[in-house]
Amino acid sequence: MQTLIILLGWTVLAWLLVRATQPPADATAPQSAPFLGGGTTGTHAWQRYHFRPYTMTLVFIAFEMEMMFMYPWAVVFVSEGIKALAEMGMFLAILSVGILYGWREGVFRWE
How far apart are CA 8 and CA 2, in angstroms? Predict the structure, then answer.
């Protein structure tokens, strides 16, 4: 019960702070514009800075998981034979899709 009261209190406090910092509904365009930034921007921040760590992470995981799976696979391959070879082929095919996607996104370009 105490947690619920604290959560409700923080929610009300956040709502009040947001209401206090918003410009009034009848404010004109210059009044509601930011005043410390030096002017309005022509583009959104996501258009100016293209932040793409997911492609590099995808390639890292693809290579890392490949190595983590290949060491124990080499031991199992001796006892299982062609079945283990087929499983490794499927695994590498799935990882190749991720590597090809990263290549298409330009992760391997050194710029």
Answer: 10
DSSP assignments along 10-21, one per residue: HHHHHHHHHHHH
> pLDDT tens-digit profile of 73-111?
888 888 888 888 898 889 889 888 877 887 887 777 766
Distance CA 85, CA 83 (A): 5
pTM (two decimals):
0.43
Tell me how far apart the alpha carbons of residues 91 and 77 are, in angstroms, rounded to a whole number.
14
Return d(Cα 63, Cα 56) in angstroms, integer.
11
Which residues neighbour 94 within 8 Å (Cβ) at sequence distance 6 or greater? Answer: none
Looking up tokens 């983590």, which residue turns up? 68
Burial class (CB in 10 A: 0-12, 13-18, 19+), 34: exposed
Least confident of 6-10, 12-16, 45-49, 78-82: 45-49
